[in-house]
Design goal:
Strand content: 5-15%
Number of strands: 11
Oligomer: single chain
Shape: globular
Radius of gyration: 19 Å
Length: 356
């Protein structure tokens, strides 16, 4: 693994930040739309043991869109299908780049630019979004450490659910089993939206393979989803809902940004229409559970989020984690990973330098 060579930076105060171009912002916002809509779909589902596709044609349309969206990522260095008790989890490995490495030194003692390598990052996406949601983040995150990215089990993607996921413990178990079969011993989990909940939920049950957590605007961790957002997810979660409904909802999640027809949007729409989700609704993580975690946590929150009440989430996170572990991006929507990829990488890098 490459050595971390980034010079320490002083603690920053968070400021109003300019958003990235509309195209990237709206594309990633639609990914988050899928996360919200799938959450609502849980309440509408009929009994079935595992998530499944409604037809071979629907699966083919989704996989074609997935491949098109995946082409926007750097080529993975390895593709792994990890067997767990609950199914097979698709994991991609992206080797760290050495863009920040320093010139060699003859000194026997390590310099400030020759710190031990960070634990690999594990990217956990939001509901229904899959690995392609990280396209904007991978270039900067790979300068920090090796990166693994996975498709959630029980969701649209290339992971294959084979047994029911009936509880939070089951949701934690498949992720823990996946980490246990990767070459390294411990990992820094980076979770977006429901992926953030999934990372914290795992840490509540076991931290055997976790060195740290970074969560990006996770619902059900520091606040509940506002009722207005829940109500808006219901019509767009229906398989027969017209695309115009989903476009309107995506604009709502992205602060009124227009929606464009991009590969990742086609992938998400195909998954929403053709995949029948069969996972339990997330349980709200309690403050007692957060306080009991024995791994460091960095919370990156969106000041314009519709997945949390931003003020309530920031207050809870600060009360439980401490001010130094909470960052609020005032102008960010819930799609903050696509709006501020470099800032997020900088924050994670700074966080890693504080770890024991």
């Amino acid at each position: 693994m490459p050595e971390s060579t980034t010079e320490p930076r002083p603690q920053r105060r968070w400021r109003s930040q300019r958003r990235r171009p509309w195209r990237r912002r709206t594309a990633l916002a639609l990914v988050i739309v899928a996360a919200l809509a799938a959450t609502a779909a849980i309440t509408l589902r009929t009994p079935s043991p595992v998530g499944h596709w409604d037809s071979a044609e629907g699966l083919d349309r989704y996989l074609a869109a997935y491949d098109e969206a995946f082409a926007q990522l750097p080529p993975p260095d390895a593709t792994l299908d990890v067997r767990t008790e609950y199914g097979t989890v698709r994991v991609y490995r992206f080797a760290a780049t050495n863009e920040q490495s320093a010139e060699p030194t003859d000194s026997a003692e390590p310099s400030d630019a020759q710190q031990p390598s960070a634990d690999p990052l594990i990217l956990v996406p939001g509901r229904s979004s899959g690995v392609p949601v990280w396209a904007d983040n991978l270039p900067s995150l790979r300068t920090i450490a090796d990166v693994y990215a996975l498709d959630l089990l029980g969701e649209p993607g290339r992971s294959l659910q084979e047994r029911p996921l009936d509880s939070d413990a089951d949701q934690a178990a498949w992720l823990d089993e996946t980490l246990a079969q990767l070459p390294e011993e411990r990992f820094h989990l980076v979770g977006l939206s429901i992926g953030g909940w999934s990372a914290v939920n795992l840490a509540v049950h076991s931290t055997a393979h976790i060195s740290a957590l970074t969560v990006l605007d996770p619902p059900f961790v520091f606040d509940d989803i506002p009722i207005g957002t829940v109500l808006r997810t219901i019509p767009v979660s229906l398989p027969w809902a017209p695309r115009a409904w989903r476009d309107a909802f995506s604009s709502y999640t992205a602060g009124g940004a227009p929606v464009e027809d991009v590969p990742v949007a086609r992938m998400i729409e195909a998954g929403m229409q053709h995949y029948r989700l069969r996972v339990p609704a997330p349980t709200r993580i309690t403050e007692d559970q957060l306080e009991s975690l024995d791994v460091p946590v960095l919370a990156l929150l969106a000041g314009q989020s519709v997945m949390n009440d931003p003020d309530a989430a920031a207050t809870t996170a600060t009360r439980v984690l401490g001010h130094e572990s909470v960052r609020v991006y005032p102008d960010a929507s819930h799609a903050l990973n696509g709006e501020y990829p470099q800032e997020i990488a900088d924050d994670i890098s700074e966080f890693i330098r504080t770890l024991p």
